[in-house]
Amino acid sequence: MSRTSTISPDAAEASPALELDDLSVAYTVRGRDLPVLANVSLTIARGEAYGLVGESGSGKSTVALALQRVLPANGRICGGYARVAGKDVAELGAAELRRMRAKDVAMVFQDPGKALNPSLTVGRQMAEVFEILGSSGSEARKRGEEMLGRVRISDPARVMASFPHQLSGGMQQRVVIAMALAKDPALLILDEPTTGLDATIEAEVLDLVDTLRQEFGAAVLFISHNLAAVASLCNRVGVLYAGKLVEEGPARELFSDPRHPYTAGLLRCLPRAGFKGGAALDNIPGFPPPPGSITSGCVFAPRCGLVQDRCRIDEPPLYEVGNGRGSRCHFHDRVDDLPRMSEAPPVNTPERGPEVEPVLKLEHLSKTYTLPGNRKVQALRDVSLTLDPGETLGLVGESGSGKSTLANLVLGLAEHDEGGRIDLDGKPIPADVHARPREAVKAIQIVFQNPDSALNRAHTVKHLIGRAVEKLAGIAGKQRDSRVRHLLEAVRLTPRQLPAKPRQLSGGMKQRVAVARAFAADPRVIVCDEPTSALDVSVQSAILNLLSELQAERQVSYILISHDLGVVRHLSDRIAVMYLGRLMEIGPARSVIEGPHHPYTEALLSAAPTVTGERGARIRLEGQIPSPIDPPSGCVFNTRCPRKFAKICETEEPPFVLDDEGHAIRCHLPREKLGRGRKMEGVAVGEAGA
Amino acid sequence: MRSPFGRFLLRRLGLSLLTLWLVSVVVFLGAQVLPGDPGRAVLGPLADARAVAALNREIGADRPPVEIYVSWVGGMLQGDLGQSYAYRAPVAPFVGDAMLKSLKLVGMIFVIVVPLGVGAGVVAALNVGKPIDRIISVASLSLTVIPEFVSAIALILVFAVILRWLPLSASWPAGAGPLTQLEHLILPALPLVIVLFGYIARMARAGTVEALSSDYTRTAVLKGLPWRTVLTRHVLRNALVPTITVIAAQTGYALGGLVVVETLFRYQGIGNLVLSAAKAKDFAMLQAGILAIGAFFIVATLIADCITVMLNPRLRAELGR
Q1: Which of A383, A488, A682, B39 has the smallest count of CB within 10 Å of its CB?
Q2: Which of chain A's residues have a Cβ under 8 Å away from the Cβ of B226?
Q3: In angstroms, rounded to a whole number, what is the distance separating the alpha carbons of residues A547 and B205?
Q4: Is the pLDDT assigned to residue A203 strictly greater than 90?
């Protein structure tokens, strides 16, 4: 391989993997230049892992695009430099630019399914990378196959011959990572690489990147809104807000002792300490400023709890705050005094007496789908549980565990098999939503993951909520309008938003409209399907607070589906863990999380990264989730269970043993031998403002 | 054939035969049963009843419809398409000859329109929003709506009458070489080229625009591949799948559109054959001609489906299940 760069190889090795020096990027929109990045300076040393965090619109992806010169047509670098391995990317000619992309930088995107060409085999796409570097066809394929082995793909030959759609999401992301690392790049950029993957797979991918980074000696630029994922992988972190790097420092120190009010606010938004009944989450009021709207002073001033007159006039420089740390805050030494910004009351738990009748009772619910060829898939098998008024049941498990099927059966969107039974307030209701009386239909509602697709774009907020009020509550005319206003108030929106259409609202506002719609007719049970996973951290905390306030006011019950265990723990009274359509464990949130718990629960918990960066020994689940068409015999988890101990696991389905706290576990191991979680410490930051 | 693709092909062939049979029933109903009394229809209302009966016996129309149909289909299976009333001769050679001529014309049309349409669409997509894109988009849209008979007459006037670059008639003199044939075919091909160009160009443009903005194209660019490789291997391969399907499906349409063109250019193709058979009430000829067009349509669709499946691994995988 010839390396004909403008500087000598020695110099290239000595220069940092990435150097941004006062980098500014602007997008031209309708003739105006909007600054998306303003004077960002950062350096990533060879072999270092750097995390760039920030909410959507902060400009973090623009950094990745700018330094590879793939900005959209209306974007351009309007100041400063980006140097990759010592080369100023703005000055490279077409051939040099290609060489840089082929050799020095590699990038892994959010959605691996889209990043791979659907009509070429993985082998073809892998080989390509080596062909650019000068390998012959057959040698390129051989090296491609080796590379797949290095990202721990156990059957590289089969994967080489596969098309992308034949692989699972986790496997696709491994292929993309293999392609990226194949060129042995100086800098590997990961842009939200685990968003959209299951928690267990996310942990696997993060572990893999961490190991490979050391093997290959590549520097990593990890772009994410997931603070915990960044904390678990990176040495140093930069926090981007409205196109400015507002804080930078070593990951552990920055997250445990933030020196900028924005960082501190973000951390307080995270549900990470304690269980339901504790303090409500804090949030950051207001919205990020549109690019270019703040011309003097600090960009964060309008939302800052520590704001002084000076902040609106003087733009803060990057203050040295010790030990390689910097903060763009005039009052960086007072961040600990940041007042609590949220007025939300603590999260309530329902008073539970023995005489309380459950609002929802599911008995022996199963769902079997028939595939072509008369094959049967049991998406849900014999699930029985109850839900008390005002209670939240968290539903966790990997994709394909049956969470959504269960939700659909409860909503009546799918019909359960014969022999099952759903009782609402003590009375059985039909399986099909069309056969249910209106009372039952309005009693069970849903909030979807993505408010963008859940709200009709053509309608106004007034129409969206008004129609739900009319259809479900049967209220029309003047009364309907006052009800709509009332609901709007309940979800902390103002009548000003009534004539707005969804596209004029922010993501959080849209989700509030969706929540208001679910509450249109005094529901008893709301299924919340990943209600915040499409939202930014600060918006998430506001929605979670809203959900718990509404629950306290109205004694509504939630079935909360989420892959974010922090969210589940924060809101849930009880947690149910599902695997391959079966309940593996159900019980009070504290017992399920602190244990003793099912080996599967243990693995799920150990997979979740924490923002403090300390992860217990990770429990790896071997292999893929088995196909529900042909589930393993005995305990369905036995093919992946790290605690499998005897033949009985393969031959006999374990009993669902209930203890006197209402905690049931489906495992052959006796309770005293089951694993326990880390005690959930109350993290200092979480309680700072309480 | 045991491969998934083989099974798919067999299944589609079976479906095609079924469609062909349905077409034959419809054609039969249209040509034999609807006129009621073919002999009367041919000879006219003033003809002697005995002459009508004699003609009906001669062409076999005095039998019950089912029997007529069975003998017609039976004959076809043995390669006998029936007897032309007008020519007093077997239909098959006429239909075969006309079909061959029409296929030459269709071939000419696609040889011109596919590179032109795909090329224009891709060029437009590579220059989205620029003047060249606007020109191509507007041109393709406005050309599509010009009916064949309008453009044909305009083209004849310009190229054959005024400029005299191209021969007026599509029919070449007997024994003409391939080049002369080509020369005669260009002008008749153009009206349909104009109609199809818009379809193809817009499909190609839409597909290419989508592929260009896709994540996998960005991945390919960031691999450091030369732009030409990115374009041919990653962009066009995915972009043109829908276009190819459209092209294959339009072949059948083109054949249908030939009636107008062939009449205007006095070209003895299948369209002309069907038209004159209908005028002459030559039912056997009409049936065979329409059936031939139907068969061609079915074959074109079958080929389109096969190409789509071969180009799309996801569809191919579904066959395997």
Answers
A1: A682
A2: 98
A3: 47
A4: no
Lowest mean pLDDT among A36-50, A247-261, A336-350: A336-350
Question: Residue A559 in contact with residue A586, Cβ under 8 Å?
Answer: no
Residue B102, domain CATH = 1.10.3720.10
Given CB atoms, is A103 within the 8 Å cutoff of chain B? yes
Q: Is residue A446 part of a domain?
A: yes
Over its C-alpha atoms, chain B yields an Rg (Å, rounded) of: 24
Q: Are residues B242 and B312 in the same domain?
A: yes
Query: Could you tell me the mean pLDDT of each successive run of 10 residues in chain B, 321 residues long?
Result: 74 88 85 67 75 77 78 80 76 87 88 92 91 91 85 84 78 76 84 88 92 91 90 89 81 76 84 84 83 86 82 70 50
Q: How far is CA A357 from the centre of its chain?
A: 35
What per-residue confidence (pLDDT) applies to A9?
A: 46
- Give the domain range for residue A460: 360-391+403-523+541-553
Using the Cβ of A163 and the Cβ atoms of chain B, whether some distance falls under 8 Å is answered with yes
Overall domain count for chain A: 2
Give the count of domains, chain B: 2
* Residues of chain A contacting residue B219, judged by C-beta atoms under 8 Å apart: 107, 109, 115-117, 176, 179
Nearest to B224 among A99, A111, A118 (CB): A99
**Domain membership of residue B58 as a residue range:** 4-92
Confidence of residue A8 (pLDDT cuts 50, 70, 90): very low
Residues B280 and B259 in one domain: yes
Strands A326-327 and A360-371 turn out to be unpaired
Pick from A311, A310, A336: which is nearest to A321 by CA?
A336
A260 touches B: beta carbon within 8 Å: no
Rounded to an integer, the average pLDDT of A443-455 is 86
pTM for this entry: 0.80
CB contact under 8 A, B216 and A117: yes
Own/partner long-range contacts of A294-303 (Cβ < 8 Å, ≥24 apart): A294/A242, A298/A328, A298/A329, A298/A330, A299/A241, A299/A242, A299/A243, A299/A244, A299/A246, A300/A241, A300/A242, A300/A246, A300/A260, A300/A261, A300/A262, A300/A329, A303/A262, A303/A265
Whether A123 shows a pLDDT value over 70: the answer reads yes
Structure confidence at residue A362 as a pLDDT band (50, 70, 90): very high
Last residue of a domain, one of B68, B92, B116: B92
Contact A115 B221 (CB under 8 A): no
Instruction: Please state the rounded mean pLDDT for residues A560-573.
Output: 89
Give the range with max mean pLDDT: A209-213, A396-400, A555-559, B146-150: A555-559
CA dist., res. B114 & res. B120, Å (int): 10
d(Cα A335, Cα B12) in Å, to the nearest integer?
71
pLDDT of B230 reads 92
Q: Are residues B148 and B40 in the same domain?
A: no
Same domain flag for B168 and B219:
yes
Cα dihedral A486, A487, A493, A499 sign: negative
Q: So what's the pLDDT on residue A5?
A: 41
Q: Quick check: A37 and A77 in contact, CB under 8 A?
A: no
Which letter does DSSP use for residue A641 in this model?
-
Instruction: Tell me the C-alpha distance between A447 and A612, whole Å.
Output: 31
Pair B88, B121 in one domain: no
Tokens found for residue A94: 């077409």
ipTM (interface predicted TM): 0.75
Q: How high is the mean pLDDT of chain A?
A: 85
Domain finish residue from B35, B63, B92:
B92
Interval A464-480: pLDDT, tens:
999 988 888 888 888 88
What CATH number is attached to the domain comprising A487? 3.40.50.300
User: Per DSSP, what are the bridge partners of residue A77?
Assistant: A25
DSSP 8-state assignment for residue B170: S
Task: Say whether both B316 and B207 belong to one domain.
Answer: yes
Q: What is the dihedral of CA A409, A413, A417, A421, to 10 degrees?
A: 50
Residue A2 lies in a domain: no
